[in-house]
Design brief:
A hairpin with a 5-residue loop joins β2 and β3. 40% of the residues lie in helices and 15% in strands. The protein folds into 2 domains: 121 residues, Ribonuclease H-like superfamily/Ribonuclease H (Nucleotidyltransferase, domain 5); 72 residues, no CATH class. Strands 3-2-1-4-5 form a 5-stranded mixed β-sheet.
Length: 211
């Protein structure tokens, strides 16, 4: 029997953001994750949780500082093996395109985590990265295409940056703005983006904007 083909636009997208103890998925851990499944009919399904650190000896102090990690804040974090098995079993990732800002980073951590625990998933292998849209529309004015400066450039208010659910929502908003962009938008951005980014840099590049 021939396999049924589903076009990409008819597949669900799973927006993902992870907060981790470092940059290497082979030695560092996910300690917070947000997963937002957006089905073609517009229905959302959200999982958001803090997860206990598995290899604290490998945690980078700067990563923990950025993520706001404290033992008190993570006191009720979920057991990793139990949590990731629940994520796989509930089907939120099944046959969904993984999306996000610099999504290869998050997908790499997800795949490494599932593999380490011997958990199988049915994630689609396609990745959708809003960084590509940022490069297309904003590159002439950007020093960095990471999430916070991209939001600053587009006039998207930033709150609670470097927390998984907030960053997930911000990436979705970046996607919405840039996918709908037209020539007149680029013309307008050429006039306002440099000033927005200059003000943000002069304020010390804060993770909440406007102040």
């Amino acid at each position: 029997m021939a396999r049924t083909y589903t076009p990409l636009y008819a597949k669900p997208f799973v927006w993902v953001d992870t907060e981790t103890t470092g940059l290497d998925p082979d030695v560092n851990d996910i300690i917070e994750v947000a997963i937002i499944r957006l089905n073609p009919d517009g229905i959302e399904w959200v999982i958001h949780s803090k997860v206990k650190m598995e290899r604290p000896e490998n945690a980078h102090p700067k990563a923990l500082e950025v993520n706001g990690y404290t033992e008190e804040a993570w006191a009720d974090a979920e057991d990793p093996k139990v949590f990731w098995q629940k994520v796989a079993d509930c089907g939120i990732l099944d046959e969904a395109i993984v999306a996000g800002q610099n999504v290869r980073f998050d997908a790499g951590f997800l795949n490494a985590t599932f593999k380490r625990h011997g958990i199988k998933t049915r994630m689609d292998y396609h990745l959708y990265d809003t960084c590509t849209l940022t490069l297309e529309h904003l590159l002439p004015w950007m020093e960095s295409i990471s999430l916070v400066p991209t939001c600053v450039a587009l006039g998207i208010p930033v709150k609670n940056a470097h927390t998984a659910l907030a960053d997930c929502r911000l990436a979705m908003e970046v996607d919405k703005v840039l996918r709908q962009a037209k020539g007149k938008d680029r013309e307008a951005w050429s006039k306002v983006v440099p000033g927005r980014l200059l003000a943000w840099r002069m304020a010390g590049k804060p993770n909440e904007w406007p102040l």
